[in-house]
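Minutes, project check-in
Item: structure for the 435-residue chain
Input as provided by the requester:
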Amino acid sequence: MLSKFRQHIAKDFPELEQERFILACSGGLDSMVMAHLSAVSRYDFALAHCNFQLRNTDSDADEELVRASAQAYGVPFFVSRFDTLEYVNKNKVSVQMAARELRYAWFAKLQNEHNIKWLVTAHHADDALETFMINLSRGTGIDGLTGIPAKTKSIARPLLAFSKVELESYANANKIDWREDKSNAETKYLRNKIRHELVPGMKELHPTFLDNFKRSLRHLENTASLVHVSIENIRAALFEEKEGVIHIDSEALLQLHPLEAYVYQLFKAYGFTAWEDICSLISATSGKEVRSRTHRLVKDRNALLLSKLEAQQEASYLLKREEQELLHPVRLKVEEVEAITEITPEVLYVDKKTLKYPLTVRKWKNGDYFYPLGMHGKKKLSKYFKDEKIDVISKGKQWLLCSGDAIIWVIGRRADDRFKVTEDTHNIIKISLNK
């Protein structure tokens, strides 16, 4: 196996031959074999062990085994002891999810602190099969069925090419000590149930089942790559970003068949899961929306508008008479000037005597109206937005500068006629928007 492993590294993971890496080592069979293979291959690595303190003395014994191995191999050793149950109670997650979140956050911290790009984990082919079966049972798409990725931007998993049987054979031949986590024998967890009850039966039915599975996985990975390229081409054609908002032609979306398959591929990266709702949204009336935990998708005329969810901001902010600048939620600079010198959407000139302090910066609401500069009479703000073809998301982000109940400025867009500078103005106030 050693020769096969070295050839595999040289072909698919050459960076591990050239750069230092951190090896996540639990003390179990797979990571202890990976540590031995790395040591005898003279790679530059460090061992990192997580003690989740869930198994009393067994957890401490795992830590000591990994520590002793690091000393024997003459490599650096990192260890972190976690109060996993406290994390579970605080974050309302399962023990398995807590352990995953804790360890990967710590690994990332180690990589950053020591300027080490690669984290190596010892997942093997049987792990990939179990993950495939779990994702199959959950109804995931093709990405879920491609199993565990062999390599990401910062994580490498070179043992995915090897089976557990191969690892056990190597460990026994090289007298490698490892520790078994007794909880791995319990079938109350889905992964363990698949490992102990489903997979052995499948291997018994077909002796070359695991090898066949690895070939099928490669085919799925190739198919997923083709899908990814196709979807990115469609995304480039249909998704147009304007000032932080992605505009998507809804009529063009409706031409894609099968629609739900394309919707899934195009929008899954933004956290959406309600595919039927998104399909319905494409033909819905303006103002309808679908939200994920991180994004909102809004129908606006003939387009869908995709944007990140923003933290709820305060209803209003005050600008007092003695203040010359407002920094939040928008940057406004207030100064008295002798004359009007520049005319841009970001600059407003008003008659000082028309202002009633404190001035207020707030979001717009239904029923708001103003007297647009250069027009006769008042106009509802909602009608102004419609006439100017301002989309739903932009309307939600719009701030107003007000004096009492009167709107002075739809900031960055239109001033109110009641505050304009006239021939009778003696003192001019300049208000500048700094983006």
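Outcome recorded: The chain has a mean pLDDT of 90.
No further action items on this chain.
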